[in-house]
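Input sequence (296 aa), recorded before submission:
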Amino acid sequence: MEFEQIGYAVADGVATITLSRPDKLNAFTGQMMAEMIAAFDAIDADDDVRAVIVTGAGRAFCAGADLSAGGATFDYADAGEDSPVGPDGELRYGVERARDGGGRLTLRIFQCLKPVIAAINGAAVGVGATMTLPMDIRVASEAARFGFVFARRGIVPEAASSWFLPRVVGISQALEWCYSGRVFDAAEAKAGGLVREVVPADALLARATAIAREIADNTAPVSVALTRQMMWRGLGYQHPMEAHRVDSRAILSRGRSGDAREGVTSFLEKRQPAYPDRVSAAMPDFYPWWEEPAYR
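Predicted structure, token format:
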């Protein structure tokens, strides 16, 4: 695949997505959104990809939305029939083009079947911060800075972050960061639970790769895909019985798989496992166990 605003590479089972507008501090655009979604589509379709790293080129991770349009940046009016703003100025909330681009991306990451690791190398502000929330593990460089700056731009948190952020860091911390809109350093991000660890800048990609390798080299891909969806979707359950139903189905189906036999045998024989099942062909018959909601 050829991309203009991101880099995409796969090596030894690990896909790396690099936000690549370094002269613009990797500011987020509609094209970048589309290219990232296409990359995640490719990742899910490729059984050789076992884990994903997302990072930024240059000195920023992503400095937020591209503000080159000035005061009209968040004004979506145009003359098309499918415009979210009607001819009399009425807002058409239900049309497809009314959807927030950051949310389109985070929902796609949420649906991903592979573990996603954010290697946050510099400024992660606005959508640069919220796009990392559905990623599973966040590792930050000492140079990283974060900001949920929406209230300082006259808008509100986007990218479905009102769902993700309180679940990641708790409601009080989420609200303080969003109310103030201030930019804070990597140490505060770690103390607040936003990132797992902070490392020197020159060690960031090596650390993210080590985490990815631990997954890729030792785990069954179908089990990891199921686990990712079980954990994320379980955050919305109202009773543990909902999790118990899914767990029971997953244990029953996985327990009869070639992966389970290989996992136990390789453990007893004290050797590296060679799991036979692939995500493209071996997801159990009860998957998916949810109905994906539509935007309207």
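Checked by second reader. The radius of gyration is 20 Å.
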